[in-house]
Amino acid sequence: MRRYGRRAPYATEFIIGILLLGTSAVQGEALSGPAPVTQVVAIDKPNDSGGSVLIRWKRSADDGAGMMSVKGYEILRSVEREKGYEHLTVVPAGVEEYVDNTTVDGTSYFYIIGATDGVHRTDSDPVGPVMSSAQWFHQGRLNMLIATVLLSGLVLWFINRAKKGKKLYIRPIAGLQAVDEAVGRATEMGRPVLYVPGIQDMDNIQTIAGIVILGRVAERTAQYGTPLIVPTSRSLVMTAAQETVKEAYLNVGRPDAYNPDLIRYLTDDQFGYAAGVDGMMVREKPAAIFYMGAFYAESLILAETGHSTGAIQIAGTAMPAQLPFFVTACDYTLIGEELFAASAYLSKEPLLLGSLKGQDWGKAIFIAILLLGSILASFGHYFLSDWLTTGSL
Amino acid sequence: MRHQIPLIITFVAGITMIVQYFVPHEPFAALSQQFRIWFLIIATFAMILGVGNIIKIHVERISRARPGWGYSVILLAGLATTAISGIGWGIQPGTIFFYLFWNLLIPLGSTMFALLAFFITSAAYRAFRARTAEATLLLAAAIIVMLSRVPVGTYLWDRFPIVGNWIMDYPNTAGQRAIMIGIALGVVSASLRIILGIERTYMGAGK
Q: How far is A343 from chain B (nearest CA, A)?
């Protein structure tokens, strides 16, 4: 290990070292640098697209203990072991890791970690050479890959079975069985149906699920001749909803009943949208209200206003924090996965039902794996739970 | 072709996003970022459609003097004022747009948000009525958790925080995680249906 003053040039290292040693001998530890870091390692940062090196070390004995003098660690880098080290950055005391994101793939680098007290710096020995490179597979996501392949395989297998005409039993979902009842009620009362597809854009899978269910609901409203109002908070969602409803009306032979003005854009603003939809509820008095998609804090504002109008309300979302509000204020709530199952359930198309069956079997397998992991962990074997959470054993 | 091209785009984009999750190597990492940027550009231009829809609906309401047409006048005036002030003089502090945003839009949004306090009270009242065994259990759990979070709870019984934290950390977390796992499975299944073109309703191609 080398100890020397922070601004001392390398050429005079020896002389300054002698001087510091002499001074230390006279004045004790006051003018010497802090203890150096230990166990320095530099490796290519795993699971990245290249261009970065991970450096780890054990903190100085004077960092948070000993002389308590460490203010930070200076990171130095060079392409040669013995010379040419350039300052990269200084990280605070207590830190034991740094990622150098400025490397060029294929170039060898050496690193020195200098413990500094603000005046003096004590350097580690150089570590290296280390070379950054891009990886072709993210090792930490092996568990996710296996789960995805397993679930996809199950879904495709059941879709194939459905294609061959096998009868598939799907468990009843109360909220979806009530869709016909809700639209029928609106028809009997001569009032419209209000459909709220959430406040997120088309890049959110919940919004897509909401638009898919809208298509099924629109078929029912077209058959019964009930007006369907769809206020949206995103322009793209409005366009997708218009196309979906138009197609649904065509499918049931009622293109004349389609009114694009009922599918309207309100605003991107969260509470502006909530105010707009609340206004529609109070003015139009819909007999049935559907909330299907991604919702945030506006969920209860909408659902409570809808409840106060006396409408039958069916909600579905995969936002766990909003589920209690919908459960409280709505007549039926599709919880999480049921939102994604709704389209298949309502369509009764064999291909879609096959995917639903595969999903249910996937759930059964994952429950079994979780139970096994819990039992093993209870007996002190954590390899399965570790693998499930981190992806590496 | 009207439905084939969107299906091909969906398939390619979906598969690329899946591959980039497992393969950090270029070009996949950059491609996924590129797709996100493209989406933002499309969504921004789609704003024109949204604004056009607002103008069309409200101009029609005014021209036909439908009930509440006066509100449509205010809405269109607000839209024009905000757009012209923002495009004409910018959005930085000191401009008309900045003034309208901080003194009109933000307070109105906050007002709507504040309504939540009243809605939570009325919803909680309905949820906590002990009409069934489940509702009674919910009521008991809610009372314990509420008392564990306020000083008077500790004053009544010093173990309320421990019991309240246990309810939040174990039964509550277990329930939340069960829902999350179900959601993850549902997302995979729904994504697969969309990527493979089995589910087409969202693009107006249900049958």
A: 9
Predicted confidence (pLDDT) at residue B137 exceeds the cutoff of 90: no
CB proximity list for B181: less than 8 A, separation 6 or greater: A363, A366, A370
Instruction: Name the pLDDT band for B206 (thresholds 50, 70, 90).
Output: low
Contact A351, A161 (CB under 8 A): no
Q: Does B36 share its domain with B109?
A: no
Domain boundaries, chain A: 2-131, 168-348
pLDDT band at B145 (very low <50, low <70, confident <90, very high): very high
Please give the residue range of the domain that contains residue B179: 128-207
Indicate whether B75 pLDDT > 90. Answer: yes
Residues 6+ apart with CB under 8 A from A95: A59, A72, A73
Closest residue of chain B to A46, computed from CA coordinates: B24
The amino acid sitting at A354 is G
Q: Which of A282, A280, A302 is nearest to A292 (CA)?
A: A302
* CATH code assigned to A2-131: 2.60.40.10
CATH number at A168-348: 3.40.50
Neighbours of A56 (CB within 10 A): 16
Question: Of the candidates B132, B112, B116, which has an alpha carbon nearest to the alpha carbon of residue B124?
Answer: B116
Rounded to a whole number, what is the distance in Å from the CA of A192 to chain B's nearest CA?
18
Q: What percent of chain A has pLDDT over 70?
A: 92
Other Cβ atoms less than 10 A from the Cβ of A200: the count is 20
Note the pLDDT tens digit of each residue in B96-105: 999 999 999 9
ipTM metric: 0.87
d(CA A321, CA A338) in angstroms, rounded, equals: 16
Q: Which of B68, B186, B202 sits opposite A212 (nearest CB)?
A: B202
Asked if pLDDT for residue A338 goes beyond 50, the answer is: yes
- Best mutation target among A337, A353, A363 (most B Cβ atoms within 10 Å) is A337
> Which residues make Cβ contacts (< 8 Å) with residue B41, sequence separation at least 6?
none
Phi and psi at residue B200, to the nearest 5° = -125, 5
pLDDT in tens, A90-114: 999 888 999 999 999 989 999 999 8
A317: which strand partners?
Answer: A335
Tell me, what's the pLDDT at A206? 92
CA quadruple A301, A304, A309, A312: dihedral sign: positive
> B123, A271: Cβ pair inside 8 Å?
no
Residue B130: predicted pLDDT: 67
CB atoms within 10 A of CB A331: 17
Residues paired with A196 in a beta bridge: A291
Query: What's the domain count of chain B?
Result: 3
